[in-house]
Amino acid sequence: MSIRGKAFIAGIYEHPCRGAADKTLAQLHAEIAKAALADAGLSMGDVDAYFCAGDAPGLGPLNMIEYLGLQNVRHMDSTETGGSSYLVHVNHAAQAIAAGHCNIALITLAGRPLADAKEGKSGRFHNTEAPDFPFEAPFGANVANMYAMCAKRHMHEFGTTSEQLAWIKVAASHHAQYNENARLRNIVTVDEVLASPMIADPLHRLDCCVITDGGGGLVVVSEAVARGLRRPLVKVLGAGEAPKHLSAGRVDLTFSGARWSGLKAFEEAGVTAKDIKYASIYDSFTITVLETIEDLGFCEKGAGGRFVSDGNLISGVGRLPFNTDGGGLCNNHPGNRGGMTKVIEAVRQVRGEAHPRVQVPDCDIALAHGTGGLLGSRMGSATLVLGHQDA
Amino acid sequence: MSNLNKIKRRVVTNAENKSFWKAAGQGQLMVGFCNACGQNHYYPRSMCPICYSTDTGLKETSGLGQIYSFAVTRQADPPYIIAYVTLDEGVTMLTNIVDCDAGALCIGQRVRVHFVEAEDGCAIPMFTPL
Fold first, then answer.
1. Starting from the edge strand earliest in sequence, which strands make up the sheet with B40-41, in order?
2. Pick from A138, A140, A153: which is nearest to B68 by CB?
3. Same structural domain for residues A293 and A332?
4. CA-based, 20 to 30 A from A75: which of A351, B48, B82, B92?
């Protein structure tokens, strides 16, 4: 069953905080839930489906539905694919709505990694029972060095350069200057990216996303509900999700699961990469963006370095405006999970509610893509194609 | 680059992987092998991830391979090199490159296994350039 046109994103909310030392994790979820529903013109009592991922405390939906005081939930989902979870949730919510299981789905994300670190809490996802753990942890595998190996291999196979990767950060910074909530609002140059300290060769500090507390929420509704609301309608045109892993040791770090999730989403939406006016691309690191852009078909595999250069991702300048909120590289990466904010900015663009300096004219079709887990080992890729109500 | 002696490393052993780590302690680098389909896999596991047979075991490797990719982790003290090495037996494994000049390393470089003792006494299969 296709979900095309069966569901609409009616409410969005990005928490303005970037540090949440004075708030609990559940409290952040609650503030986000209420505000996302208010954006849609709905309230807590209207919610009949609740979605959250591994960032939520306890048993996820069970603890949160009680805490939030939701009384009418008849569908719940705690799918956990790391930072891409929230795009998967939109897909699953649309499927559940299409199947008649629910009409108003609330999705929330919150995290406080900065506050947790100050409080001495760490390693919420450090699972020694994972079967791969004994074969990776002894080698000092961490987020940065696992992504760095993807960049290194991509450079080796395709001649990609650090300057090309830096253009991705430069573009994000040009957008972030207009976002008053962005963690980093200063415009940076390619030279500044290259001059920033090396974290894990070939990734510099400015190739890496920010770490922030905060979160965001979405409200996905049926067409009947959507038509009764006073907000611009953003239609879910297509969705795809795909795992990618190390394939029993047949390792290829030069592509991501976007190769499969994107294909599925485009097929369902009945559009191609050429039709996309704006793209939110998961940007944990610059290399994540580069590989994803290739895998989604915006350019040929290996040509990503040339594609992202010279401002081609800057709104009003280039061919593919991306992450006009500043993305994870400059704006926000709440709870180390950037998928939620990717959907939120894509919705703003389709609504025409992005900052005027970065709003894409006539943005009738947009894409959001999430990458959860690690590009350098196993990941959950998820793609959404969103459109104006007439798309 | 150093041999990581200053970095705390610990191995989580369990019923499924203890024979791999025992062999490592004896200086042997093993990969998973499936008696049903004849294919190697890594990391080793009880059910073959290629044909799903449970008739699996370990197979000793030559301990030789080439660097598929690597990254110098600069923010660590001391810095260390994480790498994927493709063994001559066809599978690629996560590891470290040690006792080398980081600046001279390159993808495709031939390497040989070199076991480094972890904090808990386990032997960890790392690699050095040939």
1. B40-41, B30-34, B56-60
2. A153
3. yes
4. A351
